[in-house]
Structure formats: structure tokens, C-alpha cells
Inverse folding.
């Protein structure tokens, strides 16, 4: 029961902060709402027993990535008229309604019968150490060591690409 | 599906679908390139939430050892890829802003025939 209450608390926080990201006019408010959204999402991850991913979410997303976003927003220093507003045209309203309706249809019709034996209840599968550093690390280094190394290569390429693209003149 | 009983996989999947819809709406609605990038981050996080929910509540009753945490590994890779994507995307925004002094995606139409 406590988990359900915490879930609804975090879920409402995630959705409200995510809506702020979209509907705030000034991108700096959007970026700060996104930080809040990531913190609430990290709470959801803890409820899912994904402790390592929850910590990584705060360190990498709310720490590193969002600092990069805020830094770029400050660097560009947009004027009031350059901010750009959410312009509602009829087609966009129809598109948003279609997206929301699609999410609703997926939520109610497709996900409900996804589990043949009825919904899975509490703590059915959680073994000791599930989602901790040791268990996830074993999975990373034993089962998926090649994707792990490719990811390190991807990060290297991204660092070089970011410098080359943003620098202008090398 | 009783919503006020203990938490179930469906709760998390519905939340992930709503979060993804929010991100997709932001991509099609907003014209500011930075906010479009932030909406993409929202969608990536929704995907992560789905991975973790299916890892916590597997579809098969007893998944084999070594595979039952692969959702966590996938979420790890998504986080790393999202960081790389944010770095490159923001670098592109800075480069375009330098030549056009604008971040409005409606004005980036040079490639349009």
C-alpha cells in the first residue's frame, strides 16, 4: 500500500514536471522542470528495485546532461522575441490528440492482457541484490560486454564530434 | 485491474506511455530546438521506464539467470546514448545559432526542396 501511494506521488510529479517542460515558454524553466522530472523518475526507478539505474539517472541526467542544457541556454542568451511560443494550429491539436489517444489505447487495451496469468503482484521476482551494482555489473560485463565497449567508443566519437561541430574553426 | 492495490507492471507501463506521449507532443508542438531536444530526453526516459518495468515484472514466470537483469543493462546503454546525443545535438544547435542567430526549427529549411 505504501508503495502504491509513493508510486502515485512520483507519477503525478513526473507528469506535471514533464508537462511544464513542454508548455513553459522560457527554456530555462523547462530545463529546471526537466531536472525535477528526472528526480521523480528516479524515485519511480527505486520503486522498481533498480537502485543502480536510479543513482545513474541523478548523476548522469540531472547532473551532467542538464548542466549542459542550462549552460547552452545561458550561452545563447535568447531575446524575448526569439524564444518561440507553442503555436496551436488545428493540425497540431489533432496530432497531439492522436498521440494521447494512441497512448491511451495502448495503455488500456494492449497492456492489460499482456500478462496471461493476470497481473504480477508484489515482490514476486525480486531476489536479493536485484538491481544493485554487483548484479547489474555482472550482467553488463558478462552478458553484454561487446555493447558496453561499443558504448565507450560511441562516447568518444560524440566528444570529438561535439568539439568539431561547435568549434567552427579548428 | 485494480488501481489502488499494490503496484503492478501496468501502472509503470501506463506512466511510460503517458510520458512518451508528452515527449512526442513536445517534439511536434514546440519550435525551439533546445526544447525539442529536451522532449527527446523525455521520450528516452519513458523507454527506460518500460525496460525497467519489464525487468522487474518479467513476462515469463522464471526467467533464466543472467537474462533477468538485461533490462537494466539496456537502460544503462540508453542513458549513455542519451548523454552522447545531448552533447552532439547541443553542439549542432550552437553551430546553427552561430550562422543563423536563431534556434527556431521552422527557419532551418535549407535542405527542403
Amino acid at each position: 500500500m505504501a508503495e502504491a501511494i509513493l508510486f502515485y506521488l512520483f507519477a503525478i510529479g513526473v507528469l506535471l514536471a514533464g508537462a511544464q517542460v513542454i508548455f513553459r515558454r522560457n527554456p530555462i524553466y523547462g530545463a529546471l522542470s526537466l531536472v525535477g522530472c528526472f528526480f521523480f523518475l528516479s524515485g519511480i526507478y527505486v520503486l522498481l528495485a533498480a537502485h543502480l539505474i536510479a543513482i545513474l539517472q541523478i548523476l548522469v541526467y540531472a547532473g551532467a546532461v542538464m548542466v549542459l542544457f542550462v549552460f547552452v541556454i545561458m550561452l545563447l542568451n535568447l531575446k524575448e522575441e526569439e524564444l518561440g511560443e507553442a503555436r496551436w494550429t488545428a493540425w497540431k491539436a489533432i496530432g497531439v490528440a492522436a498521440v494521447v489517444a494512441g497512448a491511451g489505447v495502448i495503455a488500456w487495451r494492449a497492456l492489460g492482457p499482456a500478462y496471461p496469468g493476470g497481473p504480477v503482484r508484489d515482490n514476486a521476482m525480486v531476489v536479493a541484490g536485484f538491481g544493485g551494482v554487483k548484479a547489474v555489473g555482472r550482467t553488463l560485463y558478462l552478458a553484454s560486454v561487446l555493447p558496453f565497449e561499443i558504448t565507450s567508443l560511441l562516447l568518444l566519437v560524440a566528444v570529438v564530434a561535439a568539439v568539431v561541430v561547435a568549434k567552427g574553426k579548428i | 485491474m485494480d488501481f489502488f492495490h499494490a503496484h503492478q507492471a501496468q501502472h509503470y507501463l501506463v506512466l511510460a506511455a503517458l510520458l512518451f506521449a508528452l515527449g512526442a507532443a513536445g517534439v511536434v508542438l514546440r519550435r525551439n530546438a533546445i526544447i525539442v531536444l529536451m522532449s527527446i530526453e523525455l521520450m528516452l526516459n519513458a523507454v527506460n521506464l518500460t525496460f525497467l518495468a519489464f525487468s522487474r515484472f518479467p513476462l515469463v514466470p522464471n526467467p533464466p539467470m543472467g537474462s533477468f537483469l538485461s533490462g537494466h543493462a539496456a537502460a544503462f546503454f540508453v542513458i549513455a546514448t542519451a548523454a552522447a546525443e545531448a552533447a552532439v545535438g547541443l553542439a549542432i544547435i550552437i553551430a546553427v545559432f552561430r550562422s543563423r542567430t536563431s534556434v527556431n526549427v521552422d527557419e532551418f529549411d535549407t535542405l527542403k526542396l
Q: What stands out?
A: The mean pLDDT of chain A is 82. Chain A touches chain B through 92 residues (CB under 8 Å). The CA atoms of residues 78 and 127 of chain A lie 51 Å apart. The radius of gyration of chain A is 20 Å.
